[in-house]
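Retro notes, structure queue

What went well: the backlog is down to a handful. What didn't: a couple of records were mislabeled last round, so from now on we paste the full input next to the output in the thread. Example, using Exodeoxyribonuclease 7 small subunit from Thetidibacter halocola:
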Amino acid sequence: MSDETPVKDMSFEQAMAELEQVVARLERGDVALDESIALYERGAKLKARCEQKLNEAEEKVAKITLDADGNPTGTAPLDAG
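Corresponding output:
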């Protein structure tokens, strides 16, 4: 696990990979209570980061505009749909 990497600087893939490691360690149940709490807190931050990155990607996809033939022509404000 890479506790030294700030969650806010992680890509979606980095956060998801570490979140999977956190979940696996918690599921094994072989960590001390204090470490379990720290892992849970880190996992919550990683989950929030993944959700943030997914929302950002969804907004970008939603902004793509198409011409009459279905070809991308650029972007439009998200609320212009």
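Agreed that this is the format going forward. Reviewer comment attached to the example: The CA atoms of residues 22 and 40 lie 8 Å apart.
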